[in-house]
TrEMBL record:
<keyword id="KW-0808">Transferase</keyword>
<keyword id="KW-0489">Methyltransferase</keyword>
<dbReference type="GO" id="GO:0052913">
    <property type="term" value="F:16S rRNA (guanine(966)-N(2))-methyltransferase activity"/>
</dbReference>
<dbReference type="Pfam" id="PF03602">
    <property type="entry name" value="Cons_hypoth95"/>
</dbReference>
<dbReference type="InterPro" id="IPR002052">
    <property type="entry name" value="DNA_methylase_N6_adenine_CS"/>
</dbReference>
<dbReference type="InterPro" id="IPR004398">
    <property type="entry name" value="RNA_MeTrfase_RsmD"/>
</dbReference>
<dbReference type="GO" id="GO:0003676">
    <property type="term" value="F:nucleic acid binding"/>
</dbReference>
<protein>
    <submittedName>
        <fullName>16S rRNA (Guanine966-N2)-methyltransferase</fullName>
        <ecNumber>2.1.1.171</ecNumber>
    </submittedName>
</protein>
<dbReference type="InterPro" id="IPR029063">
    <property type="entry name" value="SAM-dependent_MTases_sf"/>
</dbReference>
Length: 195
């Protein structure tokens, strides 16, 4: 069972997704990821987007550690229900500080086609069967909805190739943890056209 590691809800267990359709981020990977994000000072008051959220563990962890808001996007009915229950726990603990976590039961592509953002921190943990070209399309749609100092974290199999970053987004780091690889990217100014 996955848990919230630190912050306001630290130590609380997360409702997991029934069945085998999702691949939760391990606590080991989550601890390493959030240690890095905190060292980069990316969580405090951040607007977070958790795409292909599964149980919502990454977005919930962000909100527990001080993010202003976390939007969880999940299309699978059972996973969206788990997200909702986990969001309710965090929102209840925040009490008078207001609702921090919201859940959107939607395909990622449909959600990104709507007005929204800008987001400061975005997690993408798509199912492994999602093709590289589909991931590239999602990243392209996302690129115009990032704040200036945003960070995008893509979690894939360590056997997957590097994502195809859209113009205006560049990888600045990567980390491997056994079978899991994390890619870190940020928005950059596109190069000026040659005259």
């Amino acid at each position: 069972m996955s848990r919230i590691i630190a912050g306001l809800a630290g130590g609380h267990s997360l409702v997991s997704v029934p069945g085998t359709g999702t691949r939760p981020t391990t606590d080991r990977v989550k601890e390493a990821l959030f240690s890095r994000l905190e060292a980069m000072d990316l969580l405090s008051n951040a607007a977070v987007l958790d795409l292909y959220a599964g149980s919502g563990a990454l977005g919930i962890e962000s909100a527990s550690r001080g993010a202003r808001s976390a939007e969880l996007v999940e299309n699978d009915h059972r996973a969206a229900q788990a997200c909702q229950r986990n969001a309710e726990l965090l929102n209840k603990l925040r009490g008078s500080k207001g609702k921090a976590v919201s859940v959107h039961r939607s395909k990622v592509e449909t959600f990104l086609a709507r007005p929204g953002g800008p987001w400061d921190l975005v997690f993408l943990d798509p199912p492994y069967p999602l093709s590289e070209s589909e991931l590239a399309d999602v990243l392209a749609e996302l690129s115009g909805k990032l704040s200036a100092g945003a960070v995008v974290v893509v979690e894939r199999s360590s056997r997957s190739p590097e994502p195809c970053w859209p113009l205006g987004v560049e990888r600045f780091s990567e980390r491997s943890y056994g079978e899991t690889k994390l890619w870190f990217a940020e928005p950059v100014e596109p190069p000026a056209p040659e005259l």
